[in-house]
């Protein structure tokens, strides 16, 4: 397994700063259950992991005007 850098932004502002600064180096994860086995088997070698798992800004379920929105980091 490679030695990828790891960043866990605390809010959407920090996430956007990281994405702008590191651009194509970023691999976004929200737990890593698919990526970690691929890294162990040397199938993937990300440079920078950005973990969204604790981002409250992306973890929500809302109903507005008859539509339901589910955030990208919402868990089952």
Q: How many domains, in number, for the residues?
A: 1
Helix content: 10-25%
Strand/helix succession: EHEHEEE
Q: Might you state the CATH topology name?
A: Uridine Diphospho-n-acetylenolpyruvylglucosamine Reductase, domain 2
For the sheet with most strands, the description reads: 3 strands, parallel
Overall geometry: globular
The stretches of 5 or more residues where confidence is low (pLDDT under 50) are: none
Q: Briefly, what CATH class? A: Alpha Beta
Indicate the structural class. Answer: alpha/beta
Q: Strand sequence of the main sheet, in spatial order?
A: 1-3-2
Q: What would you give as the CATH superfamily? A: Uridine Diphospho-n-acetylenolpyruvylglucosamine Reductase, domain 2
Helix segment tally: 2
Our Rg estimate from Cα atoms comes to: 14 Å
What CATH architecture would you give?
A: 2-Layer Sandwich
Task: State the distance separating the first and last CA atoms.
Answer: 29 Å
Number of strands: 5
Assembly annotation: single chain
Q: Give the amount of beta strand, in percent.
A: 25-35%
Mean pLDDT: 88
């Amino acid at each position: 397994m490679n030695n990828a850098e790891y960043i866990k932004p605390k809010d959407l502002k920090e996430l956007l700063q990281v994405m702008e600064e590191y651009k194509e180096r970023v691999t976004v994860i929200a737990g890593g259950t698919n990526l970690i086995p691929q890294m162990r088997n040397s199938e993937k070698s990300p440079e920078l992991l950005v973990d969204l798992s604790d981002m409250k800004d992306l973890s929500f379920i809302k109903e507005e005007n008859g539509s339901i929105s589910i955030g990208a980091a919402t868990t089952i």
